[in-house]
Amino acid sequence: MGVVILDGSTVRSFVTDEAAFASAVEERFAALDLNGDGVLSRAELRRALETFRLFETHFGADVITPPAEVSALYDSIFEQFDTDHSGTIDRNEFKEEMKRIMLAIADGLGSSPVQMVVEDQDSLLQKAVDLETEKLAGPTGSG
């Protein structure tokens, strides 16, 4: 877990750096593709979404969300990714939806820096901050 400071330009710069973004998304896809078949199933995406703990608390109070509501949300998210309606999510579908999500985050953040706790050091937001830090540091080994 770490604390990062970022704004919309940090995230947007990461997404538009095609090599860095593609590499990070490929890493994330590979980590989610538990059976290694090159596509994500509903179950694989659901396992990943469950790690976000979206339904455990509401403003610090434990809540119980009806299972049907949870399933409907997970199905809706899966459908957003599965743009060709094949029943699986391929690498390109995953990359395009992650790009859309990251750009929406960038738009939401705007130009005001925010401090954020990032639990997963391999998250795409962490990778965006790392890329910006590398660019600000400039080339290493010179001098």
From TrEMBL:
It comes from the Eukaryota. SMART domains: EFh. Residues 20-55, 69-104 form the EF-hand domain. GO terms for molecular function: calcium ion binding. SUPFAM superfamilies: EF-hand (SSF47473). Keywords: Calcium. It holds the Pfam family EF-hand_7. Coiled coil: none annotated. InterPro entries: EF-hand-dom_pair, EF_Hand_1_Ca_BS, EF_hand_dom. PANTHER family: CALCIUM-BINDING EF-HAND FAMILY PROTEIN (PTHR34574:SF5), CALCIUM-BINDING EF-HAND FAMILY PROTEIN-RELATED (PTHR34574). This is EF-hand domain-containing protein. It comes from Rhynchospora breviuscula.
